[in-house]
Amino acid sequence: MSYKSDIEIAQEAKMLHIKEIAAKLGLSEEDIELYGDYKAKIKLETYQRLMEQEKTAKLILTTAINPTPAGEGKSTTTVGLGQALNKIGKNTAIALREPSLGPCMGIKGGAAGGGYAQVVPMEDINLHFTGDIHAIGIAHNLLSAAIDNHIKQGNELNLDPTKINFKRVVDMNDRALREVVVGLGGTVNGQPRQDGYMITVASEVMAILCLAEGILDLKERLGKMVVAYSYDGEAITAKDLKVAGAMAALLKDAIKPNLVQTLENTPAFIHGGPFANIAHGCNSVMATKLALKTADYVVTEAGFGADLGAEKFFNIKCRFADLAPDAVVVVATARALKLHGGVSKDELNEENLSALAAGLENLEKHIENVQKFGVPLVVAINEFPTDTEPELSLIKERCEELGVEVALSQVWAKGGEGGIKLAEKVLELIEQPSDFKVLYDVEDSIEEKIAKIATEIYGAAKVNFAAQAKKDIKQLVKDGFDKMPICMAKTPVSLSDNPALKGRPMGFEVTVRKINVSAGAGFLVALTGNVMTMPGLPKRPAAENIDIDENGKITGLF
Ligand SMILES: Nc1ncnc2c1ncn2[C@@H]1O[C@H](COP(=O)(O)OP(=O)(O)O)[C@@H](O)[C@H]1O
Ligand SMILES: O=COP(=O)(O)O
Fold this sequence. Notes:
Blueprint: H1 6-11, H2 18-24, E1 32-34, E2 40-42, H3 44-51, E3 58-64, H4 74-87, E4 92-96, H5 101-105, E5 113-114, E6 117-120, H6 122-126, H7 132-152, E7 159-164, E8 168-170, E9 180-182, E10 193-195, E11 197-199, H8 204-211, H9 215-223, E12 226-230, E13 235-237, H10 244-250, E14 258-262, E15 267-270, H11 285-294, E16 297-301, H12 306-321, E17 327-332, H13 334-340, H14 353-372, E18 377-382, H15 389-401, E19 405-409, H16 411-414, H17 420-431, H18 446-458, E20 462-465, H19 467-478, E21 486-489, E22 509-518, E23 523-528, E24 547-548, E25 554-555
Parallel strand pairs: 3-16, 3-17, 4-15, 4-16, 8-11, 17-18, 18-19, 20-22, 21-23
Antiparallel strand pairs: 1-2, 2-14, 5-6, 6-14, 7-12, 9-10, 12-13, 14-15, 22-23, 24-25
The chain binds adenosine-5'-diphosphate (ADP) and formyl phosphate (XPO).
Residues 71, 74-75, 111, 275-276, 281, 303-304 line the site of formyl phosphate.
Keywords: ATP-binding, Ligase, Nucleotide-binding, One-carbon metabolism
EC number: 6.3.4.3
Pathway: One-carbon metabolism; tetrahydrofolate interconversion
């Protein structure tokens, strides 16, 4: 059976003018800054005014099991559930992250949902959108330039060029930039040193934009960014380099959340785009709080599986922003469960009940993990065209055996109509008490916090700290940075730090090789495995399928 592509469906959308979408949320034309007819930013003064209101909506988080590289449908389910709730008369908004151009041009494709559950205009959203990620990149690279310029201009801060832990960024998957040498060409060009590039969404500036609540908070956080150490081991910050103000100025528009709509005209706040394997993987606090103040129900998502995005949503975003989710949707797919049951990537479309049954252990662990945070949950079986009835029934039956709510979600194929059963289950859950609690106390030691996440959420038997990680901990304690939440940098395809361990690995050990401080974001990043901060393009990049005609119509973007 042939299906319309995402972009074909999106280009047929009957969009309302963004003023009408804003009006659905009680926002007037004075509250928004138009970016054409279908995109807008919310003014900061509107944000401040709304934050003074008592009202707050019910908050639903969409997470998933450990995904295949293509993703299992969190964004799609978030959009579809938002559409379904509106279809049954609930005033609902969604809050998503904005796509990075790297995956768009690489393997993943867009992050605007899929099928009949997409945000639109998807070409704009997936390409430059309102320029936020470009602004984040240039603010980040201003700081990089300031570091090398400081060394060139006399190095008053006694900065040790071998202790710069701040790479440059670009919003593209470009493995050739992972390790570079800068400052070549003689002293006129500065002092040669090894450097490298990360993908922009891995920048701490992105995390800061997603956690800040206004310009002054943004500027203060930017100033706290630790970018290097002096020869006598003192932390050197963006404020020491005197560029925090300029960085904040470059972000004056990026800090404002974006408003667009879904295919069924559900309001969608899209703002910030950190990945969940190398950063905290959640859209901005400001966008989420705007949605909570203007709608009655808010559906938001966190990246990759519940061991990454959801864990960080609970332990970092909710902790900092004083949020308490009322329900969680755990997206599961037959294809990902078969992968966890041992099926190879190119056989995922064939029915395999024994592999599916084996792979269900991954879903079971994620169910247990979400339950540790005290929030009611429902499993959404995201139906793919290749799924068979026996496969879908097997997943449903296991959930029922576990005493867990479960609903078949057909939002990709049917839009909101395909999510009504899921929406009804979510509404039932929301009536139950939610006893949300974080997993650890920030006052615990760094080792204890990391061990808690690895053993409780991943199922690890033990955590090993490499020599460098132990050195990092000593420095972090000396600098007073040890009482912060932890942002684990780990592979998304396994509960463990080993991509090869599928299903529900047991008895494994997690090794933390390095720990960086994101002092502006307010968390520590614990690096495991060989997590890439600069992905590479695949053999056949998605970019090869993208084109534009003489009328500006884009094709091949998915
Ligand atoms: N039920 C489905 N059937 C077919 N394709 C789907 C379905 N759900 C999602 N997709 C596609 O899979 C990819 C990943 O979906 P997405 O919602 O972005 O996942 P995630 O947010 O978990 O990464 C997208 O290309 C999307 O169009
Ligand atoms: O950070 C990763 O996000 P997705 O799960 O949406 O790819």
